[in-house]
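Technical annex, item 7. During the second reporting period the consortium partners agreed on a shared format for inverse folding records so that results from different sites could be compared directly. Each record opens with the tokenized structure and is followed by the designed sequence. A conforming record, contributed by the partner at site C, is shown below for reference.
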């Protein structure tokens, strides 16, 4: 297994630990696996269908425009409201890198 694939697997494992009804940021996942948020986003763009990708949002709680519609439905089913394409991180966010 190559180093990049190991990082991707680490990202996917971390995302899989996000509890239902909660969200975290790309940066939180990145800090946990020792990589930047852009790499986390890239992994989820290519392999996110393997995990609960909709529980990962930007640092300000916003959802990427191309994902807002689907993520809003999926998060709504978990009791997480999305308003104007954004989740309230103070209420629904967790920082996985915070141990």
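Designed sequence (site C submission):
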């Amino acid at each position: 297994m190559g180093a990049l694939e190991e990082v991707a697997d680490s990202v996917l494992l971390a995302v899989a630990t996000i509890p239902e009804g909660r969200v975290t940021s790309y940066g939180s996942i990145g800090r946990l696996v020792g990589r930047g948020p852009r790499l986390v986003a890239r992994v989820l763009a290519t392999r996110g269908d393997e995990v609960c990708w909709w529980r990962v949002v930007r640092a300000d709680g916003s959802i990427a425009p191309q994902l807002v519609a689907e993520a809003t439905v999926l998060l709504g089913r978990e009791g997480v409201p999305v308003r104007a394409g954004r989740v309230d991180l103070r209420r629904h966010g967790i920082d996985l890198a915070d141990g």
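The chain has five helices and two strands. The beta strands are 24-25, 56-57. All partners now use this format for quarterly exchanges.
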